[in-house]
Design goal:
It holds the Pfam family Resolvase. GO terms for molecular function: DNA binding; DNA strand exchange activity. Belongs to the site-specific recombinase resolvase family. There is one protein chain. This protein starts with a strand and ends with a helix. Helices cover 52% and strands 12% of the residues. The protein is built from seven helices and five strands, in the order E-H-E-H-E-H-E-E-H-H-H-H. By secondary structure, it is an alpha/beta fold.
């Protein structure tokens, strides 16, 4: 049963010293690092190596929650995967330790709050879309190929231009013109 540390800084100019000192003071027997990698990145070689290294009974320790997860959802998913493998999780700054009943409770409360936040965002988004639709607004990208552009493209192609040349003249992509011509033919 070992404490395995993970430390990450987002830019090459940042220093891991504070995190490394805290992880060593906590008793981490091995520390994996990612330098110059944003937390939003899915590819983090140090984290991947740490997760592969962990064995049942080990505890992954981080200096702060945001060092591990890209988002609350990702953090909860990662800790749930660790828990499923029999691996604990510890965050030093927030004083969370899932190897204790209290730590598990606190983390599950975080999870519930995260789910609540996602549900509220979804509700507000749907309400906003419904309100916009009631006012006659439609979401999504504006249509790039208008009826006038289709007519102009047909004229250009009738005069001998190919689809690529016609699309360039009316300033739309070749694929958008192909799709519009196909849809217009139906």
């Amino acid at each position: 049963m070992s404490l395995i540390g993970y430390a990450r800084v987002s830019t090459a100019e940042q220093d891991l010293a504070l995190q490394l000192d805290a992880l060593n003071a906590a008793g981490a027997s091995r520390i994996f690092e990612d330098r110059g990698i944003s937390g939003a990145k899915t590819e983090r070689p140090g984290l991947t190596a740490a997760l592969s290294f962990l064995r049942e009974g080990d505890t992954m320790v981080v200096w702060k929650l945001d060092r591990l997860g890209r988002s609350m959802t990702h953090l909860l998913q990662t800790v749930a995967e660790l828990e499923g493998r029999g691996v604990g999780f510890k965050s030093l700054t927030e004083n969370i330790d899932t190897t204790t009943p209290t730590g598990r409770l606190v983390f599950h409360i975080f999870g519930a709050l995260g789910q609540f936040e996602r549900d509220l965002i979804r509700e507000r988004t749907n309400a906003g879309l419904a309100a916009a639709a009631a006012r006659g607004r439609k979401g999504g990208r504006p249509i790039a190929v208008t009826t006038d552009k289709i007519l102009r493209a047909r004229e250009l192609m009738a005069s001998g231009l190919n689809v690529r040349e016609a699309a360039a003249r009316i300033k739309i992509s070749k694929s958008a013109l192909y799709a519009a011509l196909k849809k217009d033919a139906m």
